[in-house]
Each structure stands twice: as C-alpha cells, then as structure tokens.
Specification:
The protein is α+β, with helices and mostly antiparallel strands. It contains seven helices and 14 strands. The strands form three sheets. Strands 1, 2, 3, 4, 7, 8, 9 and 14 form an eight-stranded antiparallel β-sheet that branches. A four-stranded antiparallel β-sheet has the order 11-10-12-13. A two-stranded antiparallel ribbon has the order 5-6.
Length: about 300
C-alpha cells in the first residue's frame, strides 16, 4: 500500500508589510517551474537541475509539472548520477556515458500535488522508495526558490514536514524535563483554531521573525518542571511550522528522548483496480485536509 507525506512549503516576504503572494503567487511560481521543466526535458538538461539530498547519493528534481485551477500536480524523480559501470570482479568498464549523456543506475518517480490555498506539497511514496522526509525539506527549497525569486525577489522559501501532534501526548503529561528545544518558522496567515497558538503565530509573523528557537536545559542533577501553557502551544505549532525535541521523564520516571521528526504525518493510500492516474492524484489532494488536522 502506498502512503503520502506532506510538506508545509511557504513563500514568505522579507517584510510582512509587503504582503503575501497568495494563491495567485503560488500559481505563478509553478507556471515558471512547469515551463522550465518542459524546456529542460526537451533539451535533456533536466538531470542538471536536481538538488542533492542531504547525506545521500541521490538527487531530487521535478520531472513533470501540470498547472491546474488552485493546485499543481506532476512527478518528482529521485535519481543518482553515474558516468560509468564497472564489472564487479575485473573492474573493467561495462558502460561509460558519452559526453552530454545523462546516466542513472536508479531512478524512481513519485506523484505530487501542491495545493495553493494551504501551500501543502503532498508526495506519494510507493514501495518505501521515498527518502526520509526530513532529508527532503532543503531539496524542496532548492528546487523552488529560483522560481520564487523570478516572481518576487524579496521573498524566502521554507519547507517543513507535517508531523503528528498526537505523538506529543506522553511528553505533554510529563512532570519533568532535562531539556527541550523547539524551532518554528513564521508563516503565511493560517487561521489556526486554538486562540493562543494563533496569537503566537501571528506575533511572529507581524514582527518579521523568520525563525524562533526556544531551548531550555536543566541544571546538572535537576529537572525542569512540567511544561507551561506557552511551551505546550509552541510544541503543537511545531507540527506544522518546525520541529521539536525533548529529554523527558516517562511514566517509569526514566529519561526518554523525543524527536518530533520521527513522527511525520503519513496517510495510507490504497490503489484500487479501477483507479486511473487522475483518480490517484485526486486522492492525494483530498488527503491534505486530514493531514493538516493531524499536524494541529
């Protein structure tokens, strides 16, 4: 069974007073990307436009981009680059790429949908071949930012994997912590339901704070007492807008490590016999709202 990962992918003005790009802006970015990908495929230069994944031999690149009403869809390719293949025993060359050729020993395509309203990039993983989601964040930024700057030079791009806030339950109930760390990026307007979380998020945005880092450590031999209301809100916001970690006392009064990045939102996707390519894209898009709820 396939599964879908989700990435909160935002274009943010350097000064919020200059306004956000909105749905029309995201549409423009993906139109630029679509044109560039089509030209690169035609001229066989696409392999040079990829972004190398963190601590990996593989690269990512948008292979096909279709711009539609309110969203874009297409394919993202994971691939390696090789110039030659050798015989295992003799080291004699079996294959050598000619000048200008693009060779790969492994390439896999993944369907994606980018929704302009929620600025969520949803990517389908089939057969567990998709990279670790956390390693993909910087590559998505690298792939989109040149086209973001074509549309608007005074903007930056961020990408955060959506994470399960349900994974916070044991941590939230702990009465002792050795350390906590929370990182948040400021965001596009989001209409959060929790009033206090919305107030924090709006304050970061209005004051042009690009990243908030909260780090607390207890003295040697001591513990931080239970989380206060603000810290709990920040941990929950990290599900959409950042990352978090902690060393906390579990139910057995033993220290346990929590890493939010180990709990990405992933929604199972079943392929039926009657499914078409378009119906699968539709299922991927339909899963976005559920993913946002699970990261809230």
């Amino acid at each position: 069974m396939a599964k879908i990962y989700f990435f909160n992918t935002q274009v943010k003005p350097l000064k919020t007073s200059d306004g956000f790009i909105g749905e029309a802006g995201y549409n423009a970015v993906f139109e630029f990307l679509s044109d560039s990908v089509s030209e690169a495929v035609k001229t066989k230069k696409l392999h040079n436009l990829g972004s190398k994944l963190y601590k990996s031999k593989f690269h990512l690149v948008f292979r096909k981009v279709e711009v539609l009403d309110g969203y874009a869809q297409g394919l993202i390719r994971k691939y390696d680059k090789i110039n030659s293949l050798k015989d295992f025993y003799t080291d004699n060359p079996i294959y050598e790429a000619a000048p200008g050729e693009a060779a790969s020993s492994s390439a896999t395509d993944f369907k994606f949908v980018f929704d302009y309203s929620s600025h969520i990039l949803a990517i389908e993983d089939v057969d567990n071949k998709f990279p670790n989601p956390s390693s993909v964040e910087q590559s998505v930024i690298d792939l989109l930012e040149p086209f973001v700057h074509r549309h608007r030079s005074d903007a930056s791009t961020s990408c955060n994997v959506l994470k399960e806030t349900s994974s916070l339950s044991r941590l939230m109930n702990s009465d002792g912590f050795k350390s906590i760390k929370i990182e948040l990026t400021f965001s596009n307007p989001n209409g959060l339901e929790d009033e206090f979380e919305a107030e924090i998020e709006k304050d970061l945005r209005d004051r042009n704070v690009d990243k908030l880092v909260v780090q607390e450590k207890a003295a040697s031999g001591g513990h931080i007492t239970e989380l206060n209301h603000r810290e709990k809100a920040l941990f929950k916001l990290a599900g959409r807008f950042g990352d978090a970690s902690a060393r906390f006392l579990n139910e057995e009064n033993k220290l346990e490590t929590y890493q939010m990045k180990e709990h990405p939102v992933k929604i199972q996707l079943r392929h039926g016999r009657k499914d078409t390519t378009e119906s699968i894209f539709g299922k991927i898009k339909s899963a976005i709202n559920s993913a946002l709820n699970r990261a809230s």
